[in-house]
Structures are given as C-alpha cells and as structure tokens.
Design brief:
By secondary structure, the chain is mostly helical. It contains eight helices and three strands. Strands 1-3-2 form a three-stranded antiparallel β-sheet. The longest helix is centred in the C-terminal third of the chain and has 36 residues, at 139-174. It has two domains: 2-81, Orthogonal Bundle (Arc Repressor Mutant, subunit A), CATH 1.10.10; 93-189. The chain has helices spanning 2-11, 18-28, 37-49, 70-81, 93-101, 109-134, 139-174, 183-189; strands spanning 16-17, 53-55, 65-68. Mean pLDDT is 85; it is low at 185-192.
Amino acid sequence: MSVRYALLALLSEGPKYGHQLRQEFEARTGEVWPLNVGQVYTTLQRLERGGLVESDGDEEGPQKGFRITEDGEAALAAWLHTPPDLSSPPRDELVIKILIAVQVRDVDVHEVLQTHRRYLVQLMQEWTRLKEHAGDRDLGFALAVDAELFRLDAVVRWLDAADGRIKRARLDRLEPADGHLPKSPRKALVRP
C-alpha cells in the first residue's frame, strides 16, 4: 500500500509526529486523498513492528515522534524504483457491469454504456474546472488531477471501443453464411 511508503518518504526528511505526517501527506497529494489520523498511527505501528521506523519510546498520542530507520530507507528506495505489478487488471466495477450487461436479456447495453460515458465526461469537466482554479498554485494537486483526467479519458475510450465491439459482434451473429444481411435488421441495430 502506498500510504506506508508515503509516510516513509515523509520521515526520510526528518522525524515527525503522526498528526504532522497526516497533514503533510494530504498537502503533498494535493488534498485529493484525505487520510484518517487513525490510519496514520496504525500504519506507523506496523512500520515500527517491521523495523522500518522508530519512535520516541513508550509515549502514546500526538506527542510521539517517529523517524525512519536504515531498513526503512532501503524499503523506501526499493519501492520508489520498483514498478507496481500491473500484469493483472484490477477488479473494476464498470468493466464487470458491462461484461454482465452483455449477457442479460432485454438490456440495452448501448444505453448502459452511454449512461456511464456521459457521467465520466461530466466528471472530467468537473476535474478540469478544479484544475483551472487551483492547478497553478499546487503542483501536487495539479499532478493528481492530471492523473485522474488521464484515467477517466482511458475509461471513456474503453467504453467507446466496447460499444463498437459489441455492435460488431451482434452484426456478425446476425450475418448469414453468404455474407449478406437484409437491410432492415442492420438498420435496427445501428442507432444514431
């Protein structure tokens, strides 16, 4: 999980308290991913048990300071230089929804695709507006918004490709062996 390594990166700059780590994490990530202070302390406890950070001792709460260890520095360097495993696609609700919708009778898959496409384009417009207002002042936020815009754009492009593939598959199933399809069924499948 990247939170643990983000905390290690922040600690590589010098000792910090848990609350301070939460604030700096949110600031560095453009405040796009809020972080619960409880998650910070739970993660710090795991890092401490793993020997990647050390604390100021037995003290608990917001006054307990943490610092990175040599093992933590090595783990951070390894994480930064190791590409994430993207060999298997993540479980994506939208992809699953479309795969299932194709199999459900009496579902207009084209309309399902278009409903999601419209929503994603609306989200892209909202992210673009946010970027225009704050992107110049906050590099972390601008980078996070760029990543989200590219991700959403890729999903929209996938929806368009899926729509085309589904239409072609339906046409192929209807096409007779001689390769000629009566005009009326083909027109019924093609929607404006």
